[in-house]
Amino acid sequence: MPLVCVCSPKGGVGKTTVTANLAYALARAGSKVLAIDFDVQNALRLHFGVPLSDGRGYVAKAIESADWSQSVLTAGSNMFVLPYGDVSEEQRLEFEQRLSTDSHFLMRGLSTLLNYPGLVIIADFPPGPNPALKAVSRLADLHLVTMLADTASLSLLPHIENHRLIGEPLNNKAGYYFILNQSDNRRHISRDVTAFMQQRLGDRLLGVINRDESVAEANASQQSIFDFSPASAAAFDIELISKRVAGILDIKIGDGAVHTGLRTSNF
């Protein structure tokens, strides 16, 4: 059960879109993939066709329920999503407090999912430091830090490298890597930042996703980039990143075993 965390030091970098499309790419390759949303904005579900009016999620019942897998929704072949859900401010604060103070809270809630054979879990987080990212980091196999090809993201690179995102190293297993999103060769600054990141990070830069209008159009239609525009530059870039993730984590496809299906709901 590999657990991949997708995070960012700042908002507006397309992190949730990267999370969703990376999940789609791994599912297309044959893995069973679960996308978990730890962001109160509850936007990840929209990338999987869940209606805006559907407020189901795990956080509202997280304190009383010992098994969050009961809130998993089926989002297509090999694809599942665990939405944050609609919550009150009191529920959000209580959830974050338990994440911060109860070291077993997260493990109890995710135990069924963490032990499901062959399931790849990709988790999306709010930007910047947050209790969920710190709690999940102790269980994660890999972190992917999403940044833009701009000077604002570039200025935050030392923030990540000096472990200031959660106050300690992001990952003690396979480590952390960077994804540079919306690189645009037509713009001087974007081109220079991309070149600098490639030189500075080397192999730690897992991939560069080219700026592509079809990504926003796919989001608007609640589709993956692979379904909306399979020949697009962004689809190629994300698929390449997914293959590198699979290589780092040694994800094996099709082990021949038959496993009990996840208990899920449709929408």
Question: Could you characterize the architecture of this molecule?
Answer:
- With 267 residues, the protein is an alpha/beta fold.
- It has helices spanning 15-28, 89-101, 105-114, 131-137, 151-155, 157-161, 188-201, 213-220, 225-228, 233-249, and strands at residues 3-7, 32-37, 73-74, 79-82, 119-124, 142-148, 176-183, 205-210.
- An 8-stranded mixed sheet has the order 3-4-2-5-1-6-7-8, with helices on both faces.
- Helix 1 (15-28) crosses helix 10 (233-249) and helix 2 runs parallel beside helix 4.
- Residues 255-259 have low confidence and may be disordered.
- It holds the Pfam family CBP_BcsQ.
- This is Cellulose synthase.
Keywords:
alpha/beta, Cellulose_synthase_operon_BcsQ, 8 strands, Cellulose synthase, 36% helix, 267 residues
